[in-house]
Amino acid sequence: MWRKYVLFPVVGLLAACASAPTALDLSLDKLTKEGKFRVALVAPVPEPAVHQIHDWSIRLMTPDGTPIAKGLVYLNGGMPGHGHGLPTRPITVGETAPGLYRVEGMKFNMPGHWELIVAIQANGTEDFAYFNWMVALPKAR
Fold it and tell me: Which of 66, 63, 80, 70 is nearest to 117 (CA)?
């Protein structure tokens, strides 16, 4: 009997963490904050699971879509609703094609709303972009 009083609040808390805030922009392709670059995040397929290390790609382009080679691209993030960052430090390991940068070492340690931040230095200027990513609750076994 006591278990339902303990489990229901825990399940409710997990569901709240995994639900998307209203009007959340989930676009993975956008202009940077000051409009200097176009950035697209390329998530792994299948979508990354909680507690698994995964790699992403970042497309860096001019605002009109021309790939930008030899830029410096950094990816970081955290959970704004919880006030903590990623449990790992992702590393950009290089370009796999002109304007396509590989980032290794991403990990989400819980379901819910994550904010990913891409900082860029290229063509003598810098800018950044924010992306929202929802990590789903793990599937029941």
Answer: 80
Q: In what order do the strands lie in the sheet with 54-61?
A: 29-31, 38-42, 54-61, 100-106, 91-97
Measured CA to CA, the distance from residue 74 to residue 29 in angstroms comes to 16
Cite the DSSP H helix spans in 19-76: none
Tokens of 24: 């959340």
pLDDT of residue 141: 66
- The length of the chain, given as a count of residues: 141
Largest CA distance in the chain: 65
Distance CA 17, CA 23 (A): 16
> What domains are there in the chain, each with its CATH number?
2-135 (2.60.40.3340)
- Whether this prediction's pTM lies above 0.90 is answered by no
How far is Cα 64 from Cα 119, in angstroms, rounded to an integer? Answer: 19
